[in-house]
Every structure is written in structure tokens, then in C-alpha cells.
Amino acid sequence: MNTTTASAHDAFSPLRLQSRPLVWQVAAIVLGTLFLALSSYVEVPMVPVPMTMQTFAVTLVGALYGWRLGGLTIVAWLLEGALGLPVLAGGASGAAHFLGATGGYLFAFPVCGALVGWLAERGWNGNRVVLAFLAMLAGNLLCLVLGGAWLAVIIGFEGAVTHGVAPFIVGGVLKSALGAAVLKALSPRTSKAPAA
After folding, report:
1. pLDDT higher for 126 or 33?
2. Cβ-Cβ contacts under 8 Å for 107 (sequence gap 6 or more)
3. Within 13 Å of residue 157, how many CA atoms lie on the same side as its CB?
4. pTM for this structure?
5. Which of 2, 19, 164, 181 would you label with 102, given CA atoms 20 to 30 Å apart?
6. Long-range pairs for 158-167 at CB < 8 Å and ≥24 separation?
7. Measured between alpha carbons, how far is 103 from 106 in angstroms, rounded to an integer?
């Protein structure tokens, strides 16, 4: 086994959850679902529609937890919402949200978080802020594409782009920049050895 590769893989996140005992990972899932729920209550006024911080939290959980644990955490949060806990946008809950206009975005969240986590494990993390931004942006755009495709089935392509994609592009870029900045701030500081 190549220990250099293993340690680099484990070091993708300052949390290092992959090397922690199972009880730490379970606690991380619980805290992650709480973070995701809280992000659903944060609304930023934008025109024409307000923006929540859900995709920011989804991509950040993916980047910090990795694709497996991040995806599992996001699925756990969605299950809480489906079972009636008020953890979705604005305190919403219930299975009906997974069948209506918002269903595509909700089902996209675990995929987006897993994508960002997969990229983070391959170096697209806080150690490389531009790549971290691109990873976050890829997660946000994937959510808009998948959510918009679901919405297009319900209201048509033009309506989906007008109401479910276009208004959220600027917010997605801003949340990606914020996510990359958070990853950079959390990334371990590495000091260079002085030249001989």
C-alpha cells in the first residue's frame, strides 16, 4: 500500500473524518444534518426570488465529508424532511415536496454533494482555492440542471429555465465563491521549509 497516496487522500479535509472512529462519523452525520437544516432557514433576498443557503451547505458538506459520508449525510437530512421534520426550505417537511416542483432539486442534493466530495478527495479542496471554487460551482450547476430537468417535465422547458434555473445562477456562483473561501480558511496551514 502506498502510504503517501493514503495520507494525501485522508488529508483532503481538515476534519479527516475518514480516519476517525465510527462514533465520530455518526456524530458528524448528525451535526451535518443539523447544519443542512439550519441552512434551509437562511434566506438571502434576491430578485426575482429569494435564495436559500441549501446548496452552499450541500456542497460544503460534500467537500468536508467526502463523497461517501457527505452523500450519506445529505440523504439522512432528506429522510428527516420526508418523515415530517421541519428541515427543508423555510421549515417545510413531508413527502409531497419530493413529488412536486422541488423534487428534482431535493433528489439532486446527494448527487451534488457526492460530486463535490469526490472532487475534493482528488485535490479540488481548500489547498487549491480555484479548484475548490470550480468543484463548488460544478455542484451548484449540477443541482440546477437536475432540478431544472425535473421541473421541465412539470411546467415545460421554457418555464423551468425562466423560473427554476436562470434566477439561481448568480446565487450559485456567489455560494461557490463563499464555499471555496470557507474551505481555504479551514485548510491546514503548511509552512515551507527554508531553502538551504
Report:
1. 33
2. 98, 146, 150
3. 0
4. 0.88
5. 181
6. 163/49, 164/101, 167/46, 167/48, 167/49
7. 5
